[in-house]
Fold:
Amino acid sequence: MTDSADRGTAARDEADWDIASGVGLTALAAAACRAVETLREPPLVRDPYAGSFVQAARAPAPMPVTPQQADGDQTFPWPAFAGYVGVRSRFFDQLLMTAAADGLRQVVILAAGLDTRAFRLDWPPGVTAYEVDAPRVLGFKDQVLAGAGARPRCARRAVLADLRGRWTPALLSAGFDPAAPVAWLAEGLLPYLSDAEKDHLLAGVQELSAPGSRLAIEHLSGGMDSMRRYAAFTEAPRLNDVDFDVTALWAHEEAADPVPWLAQRGWSVDVDPIADVAAAYGRPLPAILPQSMLSTVMITARLT
Ligand SMILES: C[S@@+](CC[C@H](N)C(=O)[O-])C[C@H]1O[C@@H](n2cnc3c(N)ncnc32)[C@H](O)[C@@H]1O
Structure:
């Protein structure tokens, strides 16, 4: 296992990034993708709040909130990325709804960013959703949702923590019950963690998972090479005259596979290639996406 990658500033280590810089900006980009997808016909995901986040944030470069804006942007292939985010959103929506229908009453969204599942999904009574992310990301989110008059449709707890640090005490302090099963979600997170940090995250998940718990992970199984070489990631900031390099946020290692780790610890694991999921939704992934994203797998696991 290699050391933690040097991917940012001291500020990042203190989890004090905001929504318009560093890794926080990736949460805003994901929201832009959901805003665009929401207005497609038919949409893969309906997120009525996604556009409000983009409009409220002071992003260094414009981000689209409509399919027209996405289609017309000459600097970045937003339509392809919006489709990808739409597919993963729908897949994980269904997974969490199934877990809740099967009786799980705790959901933990790791690196929730601007995820609004607590507000937009039809949760059965008794569910608590815990959202873990950096304080300023969740603070911005609360502010925008309050301004939009949004009301959560389950109990919701914000957990302000750095997932590379001591995050499990923060989750427990927020009311999480380690004796009850939980559905975990790690969507859009692993590329930002080194292998050692992924191990740390999964060790926390393991420690707090009662039998019957479930876990869902988006994993770029093909590694990050094609992401690093993807011209649009460097060209878009240059064309928009913005000093932002998303590739610098990614861990240096080549995406260790979480499947063996989970299998060795009592999880029964399923792996669904996102390309198959997208095709089954009638929205095949466009070849313009980086190979790493085309070979993403959705890992779902149950602790038996
Ligand atoms: C690509 S966004 C994904 C957000 C959300 N899951 C979604 O799909 O819309 C990455 C998120 O990871 C969060 N993040 C990255 N590293 C983190 C860490 N060490 N601790 C807590 N949150 C982290 C960022 O703040 C950001 O919200």
